[in-house]
Design goal:
The structure holds three protein chains of three kinds. Helix content of chain A is 29%, strand content 25%. Chain A is an alpha/beta fold. Chain A has a seven-stranded parallel β-sheet with strand order 7-11-6-1-4-5-12, with helices on both faces. Chain A is elongated. Chain B contains nine helices and eight strands. In chain B, strands 1-2-3-4-5-6-7-8 form an eight-stranded parallel barrel, surrounded by six helices. The chains are: A alpha/beta, B alpha/beta, C alpha/beta. The interface between A and C is large, with 96 and 82 residues.
Amino acid sequence: MKVFTDNEKKEYRNIWVVAEVLSGEIQPVTHELIGAARTLADVRKSEVWVVVMGSGIEKTSELLFSYGADVAIIVDNPSLFGFIDETETKIMKRLIKKYKPEIVICGATTRGRSLIPRIAVMNYSGLTADCTGLSIDSDNGDLLQTRPAFGGNIMATIRSSNHRPQMATVRPRVMKSPEPDPSRTGRMIKEKMIPGDSTKTKNIIDIFHNTETAVNLADAQIIISGGRGMKGPEGFKLLKQFAKRVGGAAVGASRAAVDSGWIPYAHQVGQTGQTVQTKVYIACGISGQIQHLVGMQSCDLIIAIDKNSDTPMMQIADIAVVGDLFEIIPEVIKEIANL
Amino acid sequence: MLHHIRNKIYLVEVLPPKQDSEKLEKDLEKFSNKYTRVMESGYCACITDNAMGLLSFQGPEIIEELKLPVMPEQVMIHLNTFHRKDDLDNILESCKSKGIKYLLIITGDGSDRLPKLRPSDVDTTDVESVTSVELLKYINREYPDSFVLGVAFNPYEPEEHEFEKMERKIKAGATFIITQPLIEKNEVVDRLIKKYPEIPVVVEAWMSRKLYLLSEAVGYEIPENKEFDPISTLKMLHRLYPECGIYLSLLGFKTQYHLIKDTWT
Amino acid sequence: MKIVVCIKQVPATHDAKIDPETKRIIREGIKAILNPFDNYALEEGIQLRDQFGGEVIAISMGPQKAENSLREAISVGVDRAILLSDRAFGGSDTWATSYVLAKAIKKIGNVDLVICGKQAIDGDTAQVGPGIAAHLDWLQATYVMAVDEISSSSIRVKRMHEDGYDVCEIPFPAVITVVKDINIPRVPSLKGVLASKKYKIPVWKPDDIDADKSKIGLDGSPTRVVKTQPPPFRHASTKKIEGTPNDCARSLLKELRMRSII
């Protein structure tokens, strides 16, 4: 809604998080968002509410309080199994009208990115995607949303002063998840669906979980990543051997390598790929374009191997190995075997 | 290819207009002029295929659109592995119907807009990624006896690896080899010539003064040399590799073309 | 069937370089290109038309020079192209942009299906596709990786999710946004490009689409960019390892063992 005065803004209170539910389970991104929302709510001396829509989700919702939620709105209905964006939009529209949140944040997942633009349009709300930083104006509740733009080459700060609620999405693993406190409690509000909520014409025929094809960069402890310097698909074979030897390492790639068709998109790290926060990131032949750096620079230890020591990646690395990776990596593989 | 070497026929690279050209008509005219000039000199025009991953028009469609003549011994098309299957088949069909006989099969460079052939597109299942080897096999299978197929050799890559790949390329049906540009005697190329005495080898001569472009093209640092003179280097390559053909890359049509007439003697 | 594909001209951000002194983007020399994801939307529109008959129309909002992207759409085979260009559209955020595009789609009339690329590479928001669907109050399917079936009244698609995909069917009119897996976009042919140069692209203004002027441009946009700054850089005291390949390998492994990584 458009708001014109500070008094109108005051009608909107509390920070909402839309929970990410997959197969009846609340996903970690929701906990990360609760952490971010908690900080904002503390500045505004208001509450963190989490909206959970799904089927059979009451049990999983109880944990939300331990992460910092004050209120959980539960909309539990069999027809919410599977993802029907239109129905969830209608429910959210009704809840927003009823409770008037100041801010609504949502995970920048495929579901979140499909749902929340629809809600924002329906409510005439400002929406900022993929925020990497959120802060709040303590006086009037304006949300200052920082996000990478222009392929990660600049950071833009965005405000939506004349509209409420303000909406934002945040990608998984961008915010740190708070430590759960099992002693924390909160209120649960159960909201029923009404006949007007359902979009009966969208028919979900089948749901396939295929985690096999998913390349689990997120869960890996170590990522060994290759870029243009790998020179071809053969180069990635070498990285796979390397990863196997290190044990439990996943293979990542820069956009240049993916675009060249050397390795599937699922391996791509960066602004347009996955954001990763692993213990170790080994960048092989990656020059380090900004769009790649924003996706991996919060890894704990960054190692770069490249024959050119002047690249941005070699500059930001904790350890920079200067030399021909086609000679060095086989040596590393050999030496690991000797350990 | 032996025909070209015996008759001292230069292979002259001609770059087709880029897709994002803002003066396409003019570029087409330039292309036409260069192509015609190569034909008239009796040389062989070699048309690149999205070189360096830069989206360009295809040789056969330009020849068709501009109604350029095709003399079978005087046209060579580069063909890489970054095409949609139907585009690949169209190019091959078009080459066949126009009488374009010589194809240089390379793995090539991709980009956002250049789709990589999938193994299933060339009817293989045993590789993860299509390289020139799979493309050679495909063409030999689908178009037996239609084309003379050549492959590239990069003496700047790790040597054993490159020789191992060459062995597979030859097995897959390559009948001539074109090296990456040389600017001096190269021992790896010497070894190549010795190893395959029955296969014609064409040495590429770098005709631009800009050596940093060469570094980009081969993927290895070539030391800058202010004294670098393409024409005298070309003459030197003739002396060093008398049994080889010569491919001229980035030849200056205005500034150099008239100079090469009598260099191959 | 009448299909509209929404496309955007964007700066080729992956070519962007940063000035090492000022840490700002060097904007000079960055080309304007068709948003790469939109190639997949165009290809899908063309394939569906070829399979089912009808018409596919490309529309784009942007400055006059965005007509180059529409020309590209013509060169790969769309039937018509319309440019939405006016000073009043300038500064539109995703809310206002999706409003303008929705209004244009209404104006075109009798549209069955709208196809968008999953996102544009300059903003990476993925908000305009669902935004259009919301403004039109049509059903949507996002992150579509395959069209399984299509009839005169509905479309059945595979939607990609983080943990797999689902199959869902929605009736027309509908909006879908597509991902790279859906097809392999064709490259323009020389014939197509030469023909597209002759095509006259109509330009629509706010009045042509009955747009409410308070909902377009900067004033109609709920969000404002208040500040831009260079991205934060990780500051590391880099430890350099040099020497023979074996020396490098040994030193690297020493570092990793010191940190009990292996």
